[in-house]
Amino acid sequence: MIFLPAGGFSGLEGLNIAEALADHYECHLLDLPGMGRSEGIKGRVTLSKIAAWVKAYIERNEMEKVTLVGHSMGGGLALCFASLFPNHVEKLVLLDQGHKRIPRFPTSEFGPLGYAAPLINGLEYIWGHSFVKRIERFLLSSDGEAPEANIEKQVKVFCEKYGLKATDYIKRAFEENVEITKEGLRLMFGYYRLNLPKLLNRLSVPCLLIYASYERVDPKEAHKTKKAILRLKKRDGLSLCAINSHHYVHWADERCIEKIKEFLRGTISSSNEKAPSIH
After folding, report:
1. What is the C-alpha separation between 195 and 101, in angstroms, rounded?
2. pTM score, whole prediction
3. CB-based contacts of 250: which residues, under 8 Å, 6+ apart?
4. Spatial separation of the C-alpha atoms in residues 51 and 13, rounded to whole Å
């Protein structure tokens, strides 16, 4: 099993999943390319380059078929690989990823930088490395406080924002310092350009999508999520599971882990849940 995390986190974000599956899977918790300890992708980041990056890791480790679990940006990378190299994928688990287009202003994933994403993305696409080199000091600047200096406060703020109970898994994820390089920035731009619902709809491998419903926590996002789920094509091989939470479904509810186990054991139905009504 290969776990690919959200942007800004290391592979340790998937530690609770890896521990739950350790009796039956050899688990690899990867940092995203250009973020943390993983080597970045050179040049402009495209769907095919992302898929090739995952494939290179699989080949280096002499794997034939893998199960992929991806959350957020990591789920986008998993979708890229599964769509281009389905023969190498046993099963795919997406955590709150693939059913909705990346917002034009993706502030939830990129922070304040999200407001400038369309402009920066266009300039990066045209001028490439030279543009990223000019802006990297601004985009990658630190506030001068060592990340490990105030872990407890960071975890507290994070958990309050996303309605989570602070756990050792979350704390360990925050303790892992994730340095973002120029290649990491270019990965963010490449990710921003992906059409994730299109990739999801053309999948040919068994897939479980566990998505955040946002019910009772964000009515606007809950409505968008319902519309996105309704737009998904009814197709074999896709299973849906809603978690009543924010974006971090695998930390929000133990049911998420149980659904992953059921899916990998083959005991979860491969048919879609009943589509939600929109209110």
Report:
1. 6
2. 0.86
3. 14, 16, 17, 71, 95, 210, 256, 257
4. 21
C-alpha count within 13 angstroms, C-beta hemisphere, residue 87 = 0
Task: At 220, list the tokens.
Answer: 């606007």
**Spacing of C-alpha 185 from chain mean position:** 16
Per-residue pLDDT tens over the stretch 170-186:
999 999 989 988 888 88
Is residue 66 left, alpha or beta, with left meaning phi > 0 and alpha meaning psi from -120 to 50?
Answer: beta
DSSP class of residue 147?
Answer: G
pLDDT at 198: 93
* Neighbour-count burial for 212-242, b at 16+ CB within 10 Å, e otherwise: bbbbeebeebbebbbeebeebeeeeebbbbb
93: β partners: 69, 208
* pLDDT value of residue 126: 62
Q: Is 3 helix (H, G, I), strand (E, B) or coil?
A: strand
Q: Using only the alpha carbons of the chain, give its radius of gyration.
A: 18
What is the spatial order of strands in the sheet that 89-95 belongs to? Answer: 28-29, 2-4, 66-71, 89-95, 207-212, 238-243
Phi, psi (deg, nearest 5) at residue 91: -150, 160
Q: Please return the burial class of 61, using the count of CB atoms within 10 Å of its CB with bins 0-12, 13-18 and 19+.
A: exposed
Residues of the chain below pLDDT 50: 142-145, 147, 271-272, 274-279
Indicate the burial class of 125 (C-beta count within 10 angstroms; 0-12, 13-18, 19 or more).
Answer: middle
**pLDDT value of position 48:** 97
Helix, coil or strand: residue 242: strand
Give the separation between CA 75 and CA 109, rounded to whole angstroms.
13
Q: How far apart are CA 170 and CA 276, in angstroms?
A: 31
Q: What is the pLDDT of residue 144?
A: 45
